Amino acid sequence: MKNLRILFAAVLAAFLAGPAAAQTLSLDQLLKLSALPAGLPLQKMTAALFPPEWAYRGHVNQTEETYWTANATDYDYDTETETPTSWVSLRPMPGGSVDVLFKTTSNRNIEPIRKELKRLKFEATPVTCLECQGERYTGPNYSVTLYTGKKGPFPVILVIHQDPPIDATPARPVQLAAPLVESSPEQAATPQLAGQNSTP
After folding, report:
1. Is 136 within 8 Å of 124 (Cβ atoms)?
2. For labelling alongside 200, which of 36, 63, 101, 187 has CA 20 to 30 A away?
3. How far apart are CA 51 and CA 61, in angstroms?
4. What is the mean pLDDT of residues 147-170?
5. DSSP designation for 120
6. Which of 15-24, 112-121, 141-150 has the lowest mean pLDDT?
7. Where do the DSSP E strands lie in 66-184?
8. How far, in Å, CA of 196 to CA of 1, rounded?
9. CB-side exposure of 124: number of CA atoms within 13 Å?
10. Structural element, H or E, at residue 59
């Protein structure tokens, strides 16, 4: 009987850890996304860029921002809507760089990234954020800004801004994101960052 209880506990732990692990991306994965060359067939590359539980969704309405979501969803009984538990998007920025946004419903999905930043000994500096908490970790050629406690379907938003090489041709053409049309809860939660020092 004791062995049966141990086996049940192990199966339950694996079941609960599965979806969370699928929605947790590493700092290295997100940095690679920000450095992808322009013109790649991103939809066809989804399986190579993300775990199997992620799906390509196309562009955010009227922008050049491309996004993916984890298949797991949270249901809001008040609004009768479903929201993906995690979202990643690539947002072209002035100067040819691309910001990576990782939005999620749970702090546990960004804990591995926070631990990695601490391991790298990046110092956190406060960032102004209305009705939320913001902190920025600055590396040698990139920064990671973390917003927590936000209202809306994604209370946790992580933004990676990677500086393009000074003497290199920009990885992507200069493209300014058009104003976001808020037609869904996911899009309404997307912060419009004009640059590294912007707030959501």
Report:
1. yes
2. 36
3. 25
4. 80
5. T
6. 15-24
7. 66-70, 73-76, 81-84, 86-92, 98-104, 124-127, 133-138, 142-148, 156-162
8. 57
9. 15
10. strand 54-59
Secondary structure of residue 117 in the 3-state scheme: helix
Question: pLDDT tens-digit profile of 64-81?
Answer: 999 999 987 776 666 667
CB 199 within 8 A of CB 130: yes
State how far the Cα of 172 lies from the Cα of 57, in Å rounded to an integer: 20
**Residue at token pair 């947002």:** 91
Q: In the structure encoding, which two tokens stand for residue 181, read together?
A: 């049309």
Measured distance CA(65)–CA(58) in Å, rounded? 8
For residue 35, what are its two tokens? 């450095």
Q: Residue 191 corresponds to which tokens in the numbers above?
A: 């912060």
In the numeric block, which tokens belong to residue 88? 């990643």
Distances (CA, A) of 170 to 35, 62, 124, 142, 162: 10, 23, 28, 15, 12
User: pLDDT value at position 29?
Assistant: 93
Instruction: Tell me the per-residue pLDDT of 113-137, one tens digit each, with 9 for 90 and over.
Output: 999 999 999 988 999 888 899 999 9
Residues 6+ apart with CB under 8 A from 56: 42, 43, 46, 66, 68
Overall pTM > 0.90: no
